Amino acid sequence: DIQMTQSPSSLSASVGDRVTITCQASQDISNYLNWYQQKPGKAPKLLIYDASNLETGVPSRFSGSGSGTDFTFTISSLQPEDIATYYCQQYDNLPPYSFGQGTKLEIK
Amino acid sequence: EVQLVESGGGLVQPGGSLRLSCAASGFTFSDYEMNWVRQAPGRGLEWVSYISGSGDTIYYADSVKGRFTISRDNAKNSLYLLMNSLRAEDTAVYYCARDLATGGYWGQGTLVTVSS
Fold first, then answer.
1. Widest pairwise Cα distance in chain A
2. Per-residue pLDDT of chain A (108 residues; tens, 9 = 90+)
3. Within 13 Å and on the Cβ side, how many CA atoms surround A64?
4. Measured between alpha carbons, how far is B116 from B111 in angstroms, rounded to an integer?
5. Among A22, A35, A20, A18, which Cα is nearest to A76's?
């Protein structure tokens, strides 16, 4: 099974900061990676699919990059409404699918 | 508009059973694979089970294999999860999610609490 290692587990940043989260797969998953945002009490919301494609309606300050085993998620200028927990998720080939452990983002 | 609405959660004793449902609308249900994903209180997301559009192909996480059964009724646009031999560690919000390869559609979740 493919394991996803996400870091950091928590992050404190100021409004306007550039924020970066990384996700590493235990084997090559090509670009089969999603990034989600989850706010308390809500379902996850898809932000990035296929590692680097922005979901419709998602602000352009969010971006993703990478392929193979190493992936990066970036918020170019942190906004107060971005406070949430972020998850990567791989969907290479067949299940089991797997998620990263999550990154809890807080405002400094 | 795509909608997924889960139901059937509640409080159950250890060793008990529960059946979750997910009502789908706004898309051709039989065209899409479906999944159950859960989230224990204060924890991360855990994929639980997958079923193909036709229902012919099914996968489970090792943590639930042999205890949970996923199924679907395409005529009723519904997805199900039958959970047997429930344990305290199965306590979680359970989400149904359409096609995790595209990832865009999730229900609001239903809470399952396993406690005596």
1. 40
2. 899 999 999 999 999 999 999 999 999 999 999 999 999 999 999 999 999 999 999 999 999 999 999 999 999 999 999 999 999 999 987 888 999 999 999 999
3. 27
4. 16
5. A18
Stretch 32-51 of chain A: residues touching chain B, C-beta under 8 Å? 32, 34, 36, 38, 42-44, 46, 49
For residue A63, the cross-strand partners are A74
Q: Which residues of B touch A44 (CB under 8 A)?
A: 45, 95, 106
How far apart are the C-alpha atoms of B84 and B33, rounded to whole Å? 23
User: Which residues of B touch chain A, with CB atoms under 8 Å apart?
Assistant: 35, 44-47, 50, 59, 61-62, 95, 100-104, 106-109
Strands A84-90 and A103-107: antiparallel
Count of Cβ atoms closer than 10 Å to residue B47 Cβ: 23
**Inter-chain CB proximity A46 and B47 less than 8 Å:** no
